Amino acid sequence: MPTKLSNNLNTKIKLASKRLGVKKDELINNAITFYLDNLGPYLDLRNELAAWDKLADEALAGVERI
Question: Domain of 36?
Fold first, then answer.
């Protein structure tokens, strides 16, 4: 699936692949796999933090009424 990347990103990919000694395609596949594998836990954490924020707001509203 060809994708157009910015010149800046292409430069970073080229440098990283050279430093790591891997092909650019392998580096891109590994980076995307790493990102997607960590997306679920990130979303879970974001949802949990939102729930804690809501509880904190409710608790603060309760204290302010006193």
Answer: 23-65
